[in-house]
Amino acid sequence: MDEERIEQIKSLIRDVPDFPKPGILFKDISPILADPSGFNVCLDLLAEHYDGKPLDTIVGIESRGFIFGAALAARMRKSFVPVRKPGKLPAETFAIEYELEYGTDSVEIHVDALKPGDRVLVLDDLLATGGTAAATGQLVRKAGAELIGAAFVIELAFLSGSNRLDVPVFSLVKY
Asked: pLDDT per residue over 136-149, tens digit each?
């Protein structure tokens, strides 16, 4: 049954060549969001995987992680916390800068978003090289919370991003 549901999700992922730059094959999740059945299947599979696991909060990474994270948090009756690019959060923040292939980037979380001891799942739509997810995990820990795992709708396994994460990684679709 899970394989059927995974195939349904895969059938909704659109390949967009040369986006955002030449040579990149972008995995577009927009068709999943436009299909109520497909979107619910994603949420069902994620909720089933984490059902019964000690979990207090889902942290979604800007921006598509907000969509899946907030919906999953509501479904599972957990709190939701956004992690954003610099300058987007209105209150005091923790920030982590991380390396990109060429240059650096950073992400931020509100200082009071997590309580010490909160058990946190990081969620995003896609895992590529793992830099943003690893930085988000550092933010979670900086806030005093416990990172219990990271989940993704899509994982580009050939980029080995899960190797940068020191927690269990769960991905619905792997390429």
From this structure: 999 999 999 999 99
Q: Pick the catalytic residue from 64, 75, 84, 119.
A: 64
Mean pLDDT in residue range 86-90: 97
Catalytic residue, chosen from 3, 4, 92, 101, is: 101
Residue 1: the pLDDT is: 63
Give the type of residue at 100: L
Q: What is the DSSP letter of 13?
A: P
Active site annotation includes 48: no
Query: 36-50 and 64-76 are packed helices; what angle lies between their axes, rounded to 10 degrees?
Result: 60
Q: What would the DSSP string read from start to end of 33-64?
A: HH-HHHHHHHHHHHHHHHTTS---EEEEETTH
| CA distances from residue 29 to 82, 105, 117 in whole angstroms, order as listed | 19, 23, 33
